[in-house]
Amino acid sequence: MLHDTVDVRKIMLLKKLSSLARNITQLSDNHNLIEFVLHELCHEDCFNLQKAAYLVDNQDFDCLHGIVGVDKTQPFLHNNIWQVPDDFSSYMNNLIFNKKVKELQCKSNKCLSEKEPVLIQQLGNQLGIECPKYHIIPLKYDNKGILLYETASDKDIEENDFISGLSFLSLCPLF
What we know:
The chain is an alpha+beta fold and about 180 residues long.
């Protein structure tokens, strides 16, 4: 029985991730495409994240900047965000957590690997993420994407699947 549950979860995840490329292409001119992608990655059929903040550390310009935040305690009520992009964009513009993440700006953390646990906890506290988990995603030009998140359930996220899903964030333009 457990094996059947795992298979269903894996199938839902694969469906969600495989549809992302097509959806990204359809909205490629949208200035807030990254909000759509992170929202989909947080979906219960994908990685089931309760709260997630995506930041970019640009060492050349000495800045760490908040890009997008998703908080499922304030849900979007339409089932398919890709069908109502204007409504979803309006929702994201009004989402308190997203505003808080976008306001985050500080100096780059050039020694990120040495200070990770302390920095992550500080950023988590600043954003209201109680026990933040994180992934660092290498981006173009030696920039680093940082995803801080809380999971919505105790089920483990398979590492390879998660990293594959997070790579979709690096395909989105940053404005």
